[in-house]
User: What shape does this take?
Amino acid sequence: MDDELPFDPEPDEIRRRFASLEMAIINHDRLYYGESLPEISDWEYDQLKKEYGELLKKYTFLRARMRTLRVGDDRKSGFRKVPHRVPMLSLGNTYNIGELEAFVQRIYDNADGAASFVIEPKIDGAALSLIFENGLLIQGITRGNGSEGDDVTRNVHTVIGLPHFIGVKDVPQLLEVRGEIYIALADFEEINEQRQRDGLDVFANARNLAAGSLKLLDPTMARGRRLRFIAYEIGACSRAFSTHEEVLRFLADCEIPTNSYRLAQKFADIWAAVEYYDRERKFYPFATDGAVIKVNEHVLRDKLGTISSAPRWAMAYKYPPERVFTRLLSIELNVGRTGIVAPVAHLEPIHICGTVVRHATLHNANEIARKGIRIGDYVILEKAGEVIPAIVGIVLERRSSDTKPFIYPEFCPACGAPLKRLDGEVAYRCLNPNCPPQISRRLEHFASKQALDIDTLGPQRIGQLRDAGLLEQFSDIFRLSKAALLQLSHIRDKSANALLEAIEIGKQRPLWRLLHGLGIPHIGVQTAKLLARRWASMDKLMAATREELRCCDGIGDIVAASVHSFFTDVANRQLIGELAELGLSMDDLVEKQNSIEGTSFFTGKNFVITGTFHAITREELRQRIEQVGGRVRESVSAKTHALIVGKNPGGKLADAERLGISKLDEGKLLTLL
Ligand code: IVH
Assistant: This one.
């Protein structure tokens, strides 16, 4: 793109700059909305839009040749197109307090001073419209080009926490709920960790993944992305509301997840709310990139109307992403549990968002090449929606002559084995199973909180035991003796006893913990739980055929093949044998008890919970049901065995009644448990 304009530009220079801005905006719109793969940050994009608008305002002759910039277009082939009953608009935005104040002032002027405002967090996800007819969720539509969107109803049915039926009295015959689809930051991290373990490219950020996942053609894949929804407006509706606050309260009554909000009248209070959300958002489980300031009174909204593609009654104040520059000192390679060799940037320590950052992942060789990073470069570190700051680029102007390119090695930096890229993977792997850091990482995983949860057996202690030659494979953990431990430095009687005790406890952990700890490719916590619940004993699981594995609800081809191949490997069978001999529990005690007594009411059945309970929280209830072999689902379907009904049940009750599903109250349930 052309550089910035000189102080006193010629008309031709202005036209050129204007055209190049226009082209860049169209291109970035396509990348952001169409492909969910933006190449620049929101902040940079907003700067382009701002300069474009300023040129238009200043040089009126540009208007003659201006192209109509759309609100973006996220329509994709493969989906049915549905016209929006009411257009889905975008929002005007600013990074500037003065502009926000001018916006508020304009509204006061139009309202003769009598206006109130609602301030809400601006969620960084993808817009979605949900259509409820007589309370039943019948359709989900993306924003598309604002006039028509894609019918993504099948994916919407996988959204966590969304009622499929609204059971409140006097539900409007037509209710269009608008809101944002997002992926919780913790879920996003977990999804990426799994991808990294599988040698796949990691996703850049939660917002792009949410937008992309909503438009997946396969709903099973969409379900794996753990999409969630927060409502912030209504569209077409057969009932009138007089204020936005009333709308938000109504949506909350319908058990539709809604945004937090604050009410204000004076600008000082509006600004205090904007600042309040900037502080609070650091604790939110999802990414936010600003606050939205909206007129509360619907009558006033109607009076203000819209300009081009945005309403005059709302504005987004966007928080600038925190960005810092620091020097990249070196790139080190980390060998992970599965052999993936990942580049990690070592940085000159720097403060960002309240923490000191020394390292940042560079993901893989492609990332380093794409960003053109050299050792010694000044890199731009940004923390926006992401939990971990990311290197978003380099400061070319500050590059000195002594920077060096990073050359990816051909051999494992730890064991010297050749590095390979497997088919379809971006990561390089060391395929030597005896590579020392791989062994350490596997042992760490085995003992970790997510697996056998052996207290005090963390990375440091494992390193010490390995240095002393006491630890090579999982079974060695259970052969450790007190005498051997006392030979090590910094281990006294007390800590040796504590470790041995923790190891004993580890032996008796539920089967899923052992299954997860073994590090079978593609087996995360959820799949391990599923396998343990279905087979209840290691022997039975080891004897399962690929076909039997595949028939288990929730297990696909890839997992079935992985489990089967793990247990047909002679070395793995021998390892399991050794662990059993050393006293590890190979049965799921709870499952075993159920099968001995033959009375488990819960095994293999689906339950749905609604309302609140006296003696137990919903989460405890879920855990108790899962412990005895039941499954807890988010929404009622024909496959639901019973609905567990507490105080103030939600729309799920009506759902269950419609489908003739039986109900259990707290008393009955606790007796059964
Ligand atoms: S109101 C006509 N409220 O931000 C105004 N939008 O950049 C409708 N967004 O398209 C939007 N949080 O997808 C509104 N609390 C909130 C929001 C919100 C996120 C999204 C929405 C909108 C985009 C504009």
Observations:
- Confidence is low (pLDDT under 50) at residues 594-599.
- The longest strand covers residues 322-335.
- DSSP finds 26 helices and 26 strands in the chain.
- The radius of gyration is 29 Å.
